[in-house]
Amino acid sequence: MENQDWLAHAFERERPHLQVVAYRLLGSLTEAHDAVQEAWLRLSRSNPNNIPNLGGWLTTTVARISLNMLRSRNLRREKSLETSSFEPDISTSNVIDPEQEVELSDSIGLALLVILETLTPAERLAFVLHDIFAVPFEEIAPIVERSEAATRQLASRARRRIRGGSRVQDADLTHQREVVDAFLAASRAGNFEALLALLDPEVVYRADWPVSPTGFSREIRGAAAVAKQLMRRAQEVQPVLVNGSVGIVISPPGQGLLVSQLTIVHGKITQIDVIADPTRLSQLHLSMLSD
Fold first, then answer.
1. 179-205: per-residue pLDDT in tens?
2. Quick one: which of 155, 182, 189, 147 has its CA closest to 262?
3. Residue partners of 231: CB distance under 8 A and separation at least 6
4. Strand, coil or helix: 64
5. Do 211 and 161 touch, CB atoms closer than 8 A?
6. What is the pLDDT of residues 252-265, one digit of tens each?
7. Chain Cα centroid distance, residue 290
8. 44-101 tens-digit pLDDT
9. CA-angle at 57, arms to 53 and 59, nearest 5°
10. What are the structural domain ranges in the chain?
11. What is the pLDDT of residue 90?
């Protein structure tokens, strides 16, 4: 009994780190909690005398569990947005609270979080463990069941996908970024007139969510009407490169991550397409934008 108590206390010391690892691998608070709980169950059934490095063992165990969850998730891509991995569930008291959710999202970045969803499970795991947590490739290789060289290639491919837009030197892209930055600044400041000035008078706003959140519509036309809707979701946003053009990652309160594709013509936003469907999101080519 004393040994079990010691093990439980040792696990609790590791839990915050394990929760962060699982969240960054999975991008879901609920799934991260489940992965950490499963790691505890496996530990409680193990002989601690055979575990020389408890922290390393637990990190590896959480990574293996998360990889299996990512693979299972890929098989469920056709499910509706309500069951998407993007949707956090913080209704249970022992899941990370909303303040921790914001802190975790900020630590990884909205854009990176949604870009990670476009990687294969093995690429995602190799990148997150190595580039974010500095786990050596020799320790990651057995988890993804590849050689060390192949594991390096997984991380390299993920890195290229994630940072693909950082070296783009294109005048049109720079102009798009200026428009988007001004658009986000006006939204965050609640500057309705500045927002109107950036929208084409005939701008069209479309969203593909299966059920519109309260107060939101799937399609809106006209600068004034679109600006009024956009003023309501101005805080949790971040620019990202979407299929070669500047777009936005959005994190509305109580919902999952969304991606907005913007059509910009002569310095005006003429069309905004909000993509929420997990299948469509997985088909986008997303990468980070340099500051």
1. 999 998 888 888 899 999 999 999 999
2. 182
3. 187, 190, 192, 195
4. helix
5. no
6. 655 567 888 899 98
7. 18
8. 988 888 888 999 999 999 999 999 999 887 666 544 333 334 333 333 333 445 454 4
9. 120
10. 2-117, 171-287
11. 30
Cα 240 to its chain centre, rounded Å, is: 12
Which residue carries 């609270």 as its tokens?
97
Supply angle C-alpha 271, 277, 282, rounded to 5.
Answer: 95
Write out the H or E segment, with its range, that includes residue 137: helix 137-144
280 near 107, Cβ under 8 Å?
Answer: no
d(CA 235, CA 233): 6
Strands (E), the chain: 199-207, 219-221, 237-242, 245-250, 258-265, 268-275, 286-287
Amino acid symbol at 108: I
CATH code reported for the domain at 171-287: 3.10.450.50
SS3 content of the chain, % helix, strand, coil (to 5): 55, 15, 30
Angle at 21 between CA 166 and CA 143, to 5 degrees: 95
CA distances (Å), 185 to each of 93, 111, 138, 158, in order? 35, 17, 44, 30
What is the rounded distance in angstroms from the CA atom of residue 272 to the CA atom of residue 48? 55
Written as six digits, the tokens of 283 are 């088909």
Q: What is the pTM of this model?
A: 0.62
> Helix 137-144 vs helix 148-162: angle between axes, to the nearest 10 degrees?
90
Reference 274, options 250, 243, 245; nearest CA is 250
